[in-house]
Write the structure tokens for this entry.
Amino acid sequence: MTATTIEARPVSRAASSAFTSLLLRDFVVVLKQKVPFLMRTVTQPLLTVFVFGYVFPKIGQGVGGPKGSAEFASILGPGLIAIALIFQGIQAVALPLVSEFGYTREIEDRVLAPLSVSMVAMAKIVSGAIQASISALITVPIVLWVPASPVHLHIHWLALITVAPLAAMLGGSLGLALGTRVEPRQVSLMFSILVMPMSMLGAVYYPWSKLTAIPWLRWAVLINPLVYMSEGFRMALTDIGHMNAWAIYAMLIGATGLLMRAGLKGFANRVLT
Amino acid sequence: MDAPEHHGPTTATTTDAAIRTAGLTKVFAGRGEPLIAVDQLDLTVARGEIFGLLGPNGAGKTTTVGMLTTRVVPSAGAAWVGGIDVRARPTAVKQVIGVVPQSNTLDRSLNVRENLVFHGRYFGMHGRMARRTADELLDQFRLADRADAEIDALSGGMAQRLMLARAVMHRPNVLFLDEPTAGLDPQSRLALWQVVQELHANGQTILLTTHYMEEADQLCGRVAIMDHGRILALDTPEQLKATVGAATEVRMQVAGDRLQELATALEALPGTSGARVLDGIVYVYVNHGGPRLPELIAAADRAGHTVSDVGVTEPTLETVFINLTGRDLRE
């Protein structure tokens, strides 16, 4: 301790081991809270699929017409996987950050770890993306097996392995952007004025191409990044008509980039004075 | 975003200075007048030293620590910790510092032991080493029986000891303690002082901020008295107290409102080196061989004042602060 020469590790090596340790910490916390994690992941898709995919066809109250119930279940599946990513991004990144900034000030210790402030923020995004991916995987069997009529899957692997990580990073980035801007007292407001409209108008319950019937809505929803996630999973998992693939990729990358930038900037603004 | 840093080894073979600042300044621009929180601070803390920043709330102590620990971006000037430039290489600095902040920043999602284990991992320890070091620290800081407790179940004193254990776990070159005993009960405060003294005895360089003059007096080898972002005086506690130039401080509580008049009368007595009124109390500084207590009370009587209470102490760092600013530390 009294040495006059400091022999510390190179900055880059210290930073990379701190980065993986921050991810490991989040993973351990998820394992400790696996029951609430599962519950918040499963409840929403399970209830949605149960009501729209099981109850409605059984009682003859079809969505999308009587012959449309099987198709509807196939439309809904990719949308619910996309929603799972967005929800988990918010649950895993935004909500903890709101309290770490607001009540506990824990974040002050985390940014003293030997890595740059933007790397600490990046660890939040990556951790959120991993947790979002786990949620999406848990959602898959629910959307496949709960509906009364069979779901017609057609997996396009190349699309899946490119869309899924992008969508997961988008979820994590959205979580960081929100978590660094929302005050603790605004959390419920965030859900009602942002998360709810996003999920209802995110091409989850209908394919975007069908909105040709309501042209103003068709264009208005393009501001919602969830649209590209839902359409991306529709492209990757089904043969249902979807938005142009290039548009999906361009917008997924663009939205992730914008939200990541906003999140990193918001994080630096909150932790550095 | 952070400035790019050099990715070489963070080796510093410089002087004996653990901390050095040159013209270090922080200005908070807000609505209205910009606030100069730290005003051109020049400071050198030697290795192995335990150095105190003493001053009232708002003196700029925490902002100074914030800049030295990379959390607050300086507006001007420079600072080096362990020879590493804080502004140019904040990430390298973070490797060589340990910080106990004012508020409890323990990880609420982890238990006591996990807080230490993960801290060790953030600082590059492998799993087994992190666990072993965590256990050693839990013993050293008398937290072993609380190893599996949740953070919210800890008392203030225990949380503070755990934060201290966490801050020294990666063997930092410089340990920063920001108001380490604020809000602690007297017993926990003494326990923490003991731990800090043990760390110092083992050669740990420590910079602490406090607004408790006893804390600065008891713990620190040197103390800088700070107010309005500037250092007003800097020396050993003994030397600082000697600047008062009196052997005894007499505090007199007196009825009535002509206190300044009384202070002036007492100051004029032979053998006193000064008197002042603060918060309705008259302070008289008495030299060796100066007037004794009964004589002072008699003098007050003669001037038409009734003394209701008196206290006699040696001059403290608070006396020094009052001498420098005309205010006491609690203001």
